[in-house]
Amino acid sequence: MREITSISHLFRSFSIFYLALDFHIYGIFGNNDVERHLEMGKKFLAAGQLVDALTHFNAAIDGDPSNYLVYFRRATVYLALGKSKSALPDLNKVLELDPKFQAARLQRGNVLLKQGKLSEAEEDYLAVLEVDPSNAEAQKQLQLLEPQRENIRLAKEYYEQHDFQAAIDAVSLAIDVSPWDADLRELRAESYIAQGNYFKASGDLRTTTKLVSDNTEGYYKLSNLHYDMGEAEEALLQIRECLKLDPDHKQCFPFYKKVKKLTKQLRDVQDYQSNGAYEDCVSKSKAILKTEDRVFSYIHRAKGHACHCNMKAKHIEEAFKWCKEILEIDENNIEARCDLAENYINNEQYEEAVQEYQKATNIDKNNQRAQEGQQRAQKLLKNSQKRDYYKILGVKRNANKRAINKAYRKLALQWHPDKFDGEEKKKAEKKFMDIAAAKEVLSDPEMRQRYDNGEDPLDPEQQQQGGRGNPFFHGFNPFGSDGFNFKFHFN
């Protein structure tokens, strides 16, 4: 904002100055084409059409390269366009043609000051004051130089002492005076990086790529910064700018290949997930982690895809692994929390699913996926608590004791917990206990009769009332006293 205000003030000052020059210019030119281009340039400049004004001033200079006032006008346009590097040669040419033109010398001093060339700016201000000791602008600008030198010294000193906030404060004051000094911008960028404020650092580095010609180093640093911010697409754009300047740059070229590879992988994994190609999504998420194992943003995204796509592909153990890993580094990740809950449903662990969805709604009570998932998990939990013992054993309601024991023997072997690991083991334990409960009820004539009459003998409330209802109270513990080693006994 300060730079825009400064340019506006500069533009107004030049407009007033040019009114005094018009008569002088017309007296110099004898070429009608030059006068026409000059007049058109003035009109476009007054209308703020700077590019058109520049075209006509270029033509006027081609027609009369010895007229210092046209160079001065063109320098004004360059400055208004933010092209100080182009304006400076024109101001130099003006003073070469007319060393007594103090307005050009004062303006050159201002440009040099903004570029951070303090000693050269000081020479111009002193030269103006030698001719015109009462020149207020030259006096004012000259007074800025010593505080500016002190702020720059302090900024460097604070940076070396790792007092980065103090360095930022000092160098920011210096940048207010010399906004076109690339070294000051880079010093502030490095200070911001040291603080972890990559966003502000990127703004300063981006400015240096405009202030310094062929700034391959600036583009390389800017690309790395965007990469570390998790902005792979922007990093790719900036590293390509470096290669436009030097296709074989020893740092930019290998980094370009890495960023290009990662960017494609990120696009592919998103497409696979969106299109339901979950096996490909899982494979690509692992490939991302091989390409980049340092930057949090890419690790976070890769594990998020691995969590979701393994869950969708019904890879239960893998889904648990990845979902829990991402929640370890980002416990408020609602999508991963919901994916974990959904995976619990896939594994028929409905209580755990309800708990995970509750955690998700605690993070964001308005999250629709969490709300709908919690309602579904609660229904599934309620339905799962209504046990159908005949269905559990897979026998008909008129099955005899022999058929019940046979079914029990087969299912008990199938769902023995020792055959499973991790979360699958928890599912097997529940299945195993349900199988044991079904055998306990259906092999006991009295309990079976009560069950057939619509009463569950193993209902928790009835357990509290009389101690019946738990198959373990009847001397049967499917897990034994030492883990899951036990012998089957069938009546």
From TrEMBL:
Annotated Pfam families: DnaJ, TPR_16, TPR_19, TPR_8
MF GO annotations: misfolded protein binding; protein-folding chaperone binding
Biased composition (Basic and acidic residues): 444-453
SMART domains: DnaJ, TPR
Residue stretches of each TPR repeat: 34-67, 68-101, 102-135, 216-249, 334-367
Gene3D superfamilies, A to Z: DnaJ domain, Tetratricopeptide repeat domain
Coiled coil: 340-387
Region (Disordered): 444-474
GO process annotations (BP): protein folding in endoplasmic reticulum
A cellular-component GO term for this protein: endoplasmic reticulum lumen
Source domain of life: Eukaryota
PANTHER family given in the database record: LD25575P
Official protein name in the record: DnaJ homolog subfamily C member 3-like
